[in-house]
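Ex. 9. Protein: Flp pilus assembly protein CpaB.
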Amino acid sequence: MNSRFAVMLIIAVVMAGGAAWLAKRWVDSQTGNVEVAQPDTTSVVVAAARIPFATRIEATHIKLTEWPKDNVPEGVFTELEPVIGKVTQRDFYANELLLQPQVTDHVGGSTLSAIIEQGKRAMSVRVNDVVGVAGFILPGNRADIIATRRGGSTYTLLRNIKVLAIDQTASRDQDKPAVVRALTLEVTPQQAETLVQAMKTGTLQFTLRNPMDDTEVNLAIKEDTPAPAVKRKVVRYSAPAKFKVIRWP
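Predicted structure tokens for Flp pilus assembly protein CpaB:
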């Protein structure tokens, strides 16, 4: 009897201890005292405040923050020093990650030269409020360029051309139309030659594209393409009939 009593007592004590532990866990969960395992993190570089497009990054623009290791995208920076001095390829907002493809090195000159795609050139074209689509073309937009020869023929010269800057402004902060005197375009060397030739032989007009419209690729129509023939109605001159006068006796 004594041994059976002892076994039952031990079982009762164990069950009471388990019940007390479960009760404590429930109370802690209700009061927020349950310890939650902290995720494994790493330091990454983010924007300390808004950084506009084509801005040379300074130390005050960026900061380090902890980011979950299992959710770190490819191309992040883990130190501040390698980012300072680079130029942004787009707008960044506070606490947004800076990724390597979105910034570029600035080796000298203007910040605009750092954002030109490799193999392309920046070229400025003089415009007025009509040619510049009433000022609605802004940095970052894409446009088609229509050329008109002095003879009267009109054709699309270049398509889907990126606008790098308007006048001397490359910032994309603007959202209101502004009358400008020049557009700086991103073109290939061949497109630059075509554009210069077209400006010498006629006038240019810009048409603004929807930014989501990527159905057409950049094309350049060669300047030596013959203009379409214009049919003219030819009126032939007919000499008047000759009459002979005969005297009547």
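Check your answer against this statement. The mean pLDDT is 78.
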